[in-house]
Amino acid sequence: MSDPIKSNLKFSEIVLKGTIMATILTVPSIIVFLISWTVFDNLITAAIMGGIVHFIAMGFSLKISKKILGKK
Fold first, then answer.
1. Torsion, CA 14, CA 17, CA 19, CA 23, rounded to 10
2. Would you say 58 and 25 are in contact if contact means Cβ atoms under 8 Å apart?
3. How far lies 37's CA from each of 23, 41, 55, 70, in Å?
4. Position 17 confidence tier, pLDDT thresholds 50, 70, 90
């Protein structure tokens, strides 16, 4: 059965925009993790700080995805 509502996005556009979203959500938490691990020299503290930044980025993900994945 075919869906009556079809997306105007091509598969390559969906993959590209999904990759951009994943990068925006992941890179800041990895950077905070590595910097805090280097500064504090404590793996647990670094993991907690990276997790906090990751969840803050996830909080903004709806706004970011609306801008990136918005209709043309």
1. -160
2. yes
3. 21, 5, 18, 37
4. confident
Per-residue tokens: 61? 């993900």
**Cα-only R_g, the chain:** 17
Let me know the angle formed at the C-alpha of 26 by 57 and 54, rounded to the nearest 5 degrees.
40
Neighbours of 49 (CB within 10 A): 19
Contact 17, 7 (CB under 8 A): no
Supply the pTM of this predicted model.
Answer: 0.74
Question: Taking a C-beta distance cutoff of 8 angstroms, is the pair 68, 15 a contact?
Answer: no
